[in-house]
Each structure stands twice: as C-alpha cells, then as structure tokens.
Amino acid sequence: xxxxxxxxATMTLTFLFQTPxxxxxxxxxxxxxxxTTVTPSRLSLxxxxxxxxxxxxxxxxxxxxxxxxxxxxVEPTEINDSMILPFSNIVVGPYAGDSxxxxxxxxxxxxxxxxxxxxxxxxxxxxGRSNVGKSSLINSLVRKKELAxxxxxxxxxxxxxxxLVNKSWYLVDLPGYGFAKASESAKTxxxxxxxxxxxxxxxxxxxxxxIDASVPPQRIDFDCANWLGRNNIPxxxxxxxCDKMKAAKGKRPDENIKEFQEIIKQNYKxxxxxxxxxxxxxxxxDELLLHVSQLRNYxxx
Length: 301
Hints:
Layout: E1 2-7, E2 10-16, E3 25-26, E4 68-69, E5 104-110, E6 123-128, H1 134-142, E7 160-165, E8 169-173, H2 184-200, E9 204-212, H3 219-230, E10 235-240, H4 253-264, E11 274-276, H5 285-300
Parallel strand pairs: 6-8, 6-9, 9-10, 10-11
Antiparallel strand pairs: 1-2, 3-4, 5-7, 7-8
C-alpha cells in the first residue's frame, strides 16, 4: 500500500506504507538525531547554523536504526545530522521554505465534508483522540491563544473548521475521536463525516495525527492510523504533551513514544514521519511548520 500527496485527481508523491522501500525513505541509517532547534528560513537548512534549544530538552526515543522521512530532492547518501529536524525523523530538503505564520483567518465551520470551502489551495488536517491537546497545539502553531477553542471537556470540536494561513494554505481542525462523554450516536456521526472529508478532499496534502505522549499507546490511535493508511491518506505522527514527565504514575513521554513506534512496526514496514511537540513550551513548533512547508511547496509546484 502506498501513501500519496494528492493534487486534484493526480497522485504526485508516493510515501511508503506497507510496500518495499522507495527512495523517499532510508531504512537503515546510523545517523544520530540532533538535540538542537531549527529556525525556519526560506531555503533548505542543510548548511545552516542551528542554535541550541532554550526551552526543553526531553529524552529522545533511542532506536538503533531510525527510519528517516526523506523528502523529494534529497539523496540518502547526502544526508548529514544537521539536515534532520530535532526530536523527529524528518529530513529537511530543498522544498523547505519560509514557514513563518504571518496571518491566520477563520474561514468556516462545516457540518459535512461537502460544505467545506470550495478552494484549490492546499490544506493540512489536524486529527487526534479527545483531550490529546489538539487545540493547544493549534494555538501554539499560530501564536494565538483563542484561535482554536480549548476546553477541559472532551469532544468540544464537533465541526470541520477551516483556518486560512498566509492567504495561501489551510489548517483544518477536525473533531477528535474517542470522546469519553459523547453519546454513541454522536460518535458515529462525527466519525462518518470526518471519514467523508478524508475520502473526498482532493486538496488535502497530509494529516497531522496527534498522539498523546504522556500516556501509554492507545489502541484507538493505531486503529485511526491504520484506517488512514488503508485509504492512502498521507500522515505525520505528531506526539503531544512531551513536556510532561510522569515518573510516579507512569512512563516518561520518550518511553511511551518508543513503545508506540515498536508497535507501529508491526503494521508499517517503514515508519511515517514523526515529531515531538509541546503546546505549553513550544517544543517542535518551528520544526513542524518547516516540515509542513516542504510538503506544501512540493504539492504547489
């Protein structure tokens, strides 16, 4: 099975899901993952000087042979440590561009996929389990505290919400899954129209699937990831709440992430791109936006 970046009805970029390794992935590499923070720029950062992080330095999952996400325009033999985004398996390539968010406008809330904005601009959908920290991450990405509604009650987002970024691309806030306090009928309805969005939205470049790193791996997250994979929907795992260090009641985020990745290997011969984040400290914010920029710029060409 392959994953693709979709442009209209044309499949333009293939990502491995459960097929033999294509050139977009490096299966076995001895490259270490740097513990520095990337500052976005207009061009590839492969030769840039990267300052050390001043916010948080969590432990990284220590796979012996990490699977790197290698974007178009990068040869596996050219990769060096400075090209890998910190706290991730994502390589920065020549399509990485200016990732700064200068303007964000709320456009529309849609109860059904067919009611979403009729537009040809690319979009990235944010999806995750209820209470995964989705709204907090969105607010962190756009640096606006109230852009996405945050609430202590799971299942607050019940519509497909489109935000136009820099007048050039969309950030889409989707209803969460696994609502603890929602009725069974509501769960079914939300699941139905969310899946309709995935299957019929030709401008969707990728899904940012949020995974709560402060808790052990959840079956519902794997079910969602597998459904997206079976339907050729591009995916990036975004681990949230990586600032929370649980020593007394559970494992640390890096330990939960490592366990998640070990389980993922059972269904994915090649690991999709992943990155660690925190909506509280801003960890991974700039790096995630840079990853989005290179996917978007390739899609736009």
